[in-house]
Amino acid sequence: MSLDNHSALIEQLKPLLMEPDFQELFESFTADESNSTRFLLKMELNRISAPCTRIIDLRDKTELPCEEVVIGKQRHFLDAPSKEALEQALPIYRNKYTLGVYENVIKQHKMRKQQRQESPTQEIVTGTFPFIVPGIVLGSYFNRSEERMNYSIKISASQSGSAEVLGATLDLSVGGARVKLPVKHNFQTEKPLRVKLLDLNEEFYFEDLQQGVDYQIVDIQNKDDNAIFRLKRLGVGEELDKVITQLIQGYKFRYKVDVNDVIVNATGLGFERHYLPLQPHLPLYISIKEGKPHITHALLGRGNHSLMHLFQDERDVSQLPGMLTNNRLVHLIKSPDIAEHQIIFCFTHVANGKVHFYSASQFELIQNGHLGLFLGFGSKKPSWRIFKLTSQRIDHQQNYKTSTLPGDDARYGALTEQQLASFSHIVQICDLTNSQVNSQYQSWFKDQDVNQLKVFAQRKINANSIKKISMPFTERRHESRFAFKTLVTIKQGNKTASGITHDISSRGLQITLDEPMDFTTPASVIISFPRLQAKAGKTNLNNLSYQLIRTRSDSKVLHLSALIGHDPHMGVEFLSKLISHNQDKLEKLSDKDGEQKELADGMKNLMMREIASVPYFVEKHSKSFSISAIGIGTKVDEISHLFSQDTEQIMQYNLAPIMENGVFKDRILEPIKAMKTITDLQFFEVFIQITRHARGTINLNCKITSDLTTEEQLAFIAQGQRLGRFMALRVYFGMADKPDMTYIRRELAYIQIHANHKAKQLEEQLWQVIGLGEFLDISQEVLLRFPQLTKVKEPS
User: Fold this and answer.
1) How many CB atoms lie within 10 A of CB 670?
2) Which helix (H) or strand (E) holds 659?
3) What digits encode the pLDDT tens for the residues 713-741?
4) Can you give the pLDDT at residue 450?
5) Could you tell me which residue, 57 or 695, shows the higher pLDDT?
6) Do the strands 256-257 and 74-78 form a parallel or antiparallel pair, or are they unpaired?
7) Of 6, 314, 688, 719, which has the fewest CB atoms closer than 10 Å, so is most exposed?
8) Considering only CA atoms, which of 84, 96, 87 is closest in space to residue 48?
9) Alpha-carbon distance 730 to 642, whole Å?
10) Chain CA centroid to CA 119, Å
């Protein structure tokens, strides 16, 4: 039996191979397969995940220069495209060099070689597949609470009753470690492992480390002739914490900090700041009071202000709670997957100077038989609107705050944390109204009695009850500030000034200068605390490195943030102790504006955990434009999964079915060039036929809706439903503003210290973004445009 027809299924299973629940996932994905096919699939997956010993040497097989790439003890020689293929394949197998990695690199090399032979005069560039783009994780602000150092120290490991075995550390943190030991170690996973650090220089000699530290064995993985132990430190002890911290701080001169987590977070936050100002959907925050859901807050940005304004009546009172009644919210929250609860239709009627709102859900209209009457009559009104609602239950086990750097405080202030904890759900309103199809909705009307619609008149709301919170598009404040005055001197090049602090936090401060000074900003400065030095003892508070973030009040007020490098920052350490020892004496600056920004930031973080659409980003190069990436939420979404079917790598998406044949250039790129950053997102619509072929492969047939007549649209939908499945997407597009680098300045400063080239790459990547948009599923609404596709219940 051949597995040729199961290649797509194998590609879907590859990224899941190393997951702990792979067996359950495998059973789910292969539920429709025969036992023999499932056996062969598992054999193939085991084959490609097996360790590989083959060396890849392309020095005599490519026209491009090769460089040495070392994986474990193996030395490979790869050209640039093959090295990129290797780096893309390794994460699928948890950075293990497996047969699947080897085959992927060789396959990519042969494909490039074949393309070059077929087009010898044409240089092969990345643009060969211009619509295969990576995914960027949005809304996942995971934090490692401590720094992890990638470096090797000789160790000995032992268990009670066993001899010591020599090995080496792979990385070390205060709470854990990864170590490499011989594969024949005879250690028992259920017993503690005592690890001694050997061969430390005298300056890093600590008696506790020489005696040994006890660890729990979390995981063991065999690689070549070694066993890789993942360890968690047993017991607690402040003294030992300090000893290991000192060791890590001392070794920072010699080894690199693992900054991958910070880079992933900073990338997500940077692209998020491009998207959020133009996000067109309205997030509403639900709290349960006396057993009933109530809308208490709304999160506003520039892109959704107009949507919020739609619900204002003649007295400027929001009638939104009248549309989202208790019954509708309960249905939506308890049955979030029932599509009929997600669509709400609305129009207004003005009489005697008063605005009356009428609304109904698709579920309600089907139940009482007035679907055709409401759609047909309402769609004739200029105020006609169609809304899609999404519901998201908030997981309070996760932190609310984006604490992305090791050592960051993982919580906001107490009041903000309390407010965020009171939210149970987020409901997002997406406006699906398309005035171009109103005539299709009007075909529902059959001269029925419009007086029957009075039952859908909303109860009048007499006072505003929803608190509007605006998203802050400025720097994040991560720490409480305290009022504190002391003398400071500040230098930048040959410029020197003095001033008084207005407020302090452990990592930052605000200074008012005696005289205005034209300092360069943002840039580094050197500051000293002459009066505090007398109280600081041996701690040196002179010539401390800080970043000047911004100036205001004619360059008299400066905002500074500590530049934390390899050494402990004396200013940060001293101010932290000063604040912690004088909490009762220092005045905490918890102004409402600061609390409001904290709340807005937390609400934004909650919303981004489960975004209602799939954002994408357009970037400009020197002579070309392309889609640079799509945004992926923390949960699997149907749209991105659809475009992951025809790609080689995990977190890679093929947008060709929807963007090729000039669609990207004519429908997105050219309109964006003519837009301004203040323009709201525009859109066009796409119909998709999804056809499943032999054993997992999927074919997408995409058509721009406006290119089809109404009759052709109906035929296309019917054919899609007959052959497989029909789906409709709204494709938004707009011009991006410049990146909000201030928002990720702390992450960038951290990355610059430990991997400066990666910080520059991220900055360049964000500055290249000139446009953005999103894909939104509108399938449910599109089907309602055609009365012949919907079964209508006669009114009782």
Assistant:
1) 12
2) helix 656-659
3) 999 999 999 988 999 999 999 999 989 88
4) 87
5) 57
6) unpaired
7) 314
8) 96
9) 15
10) 39
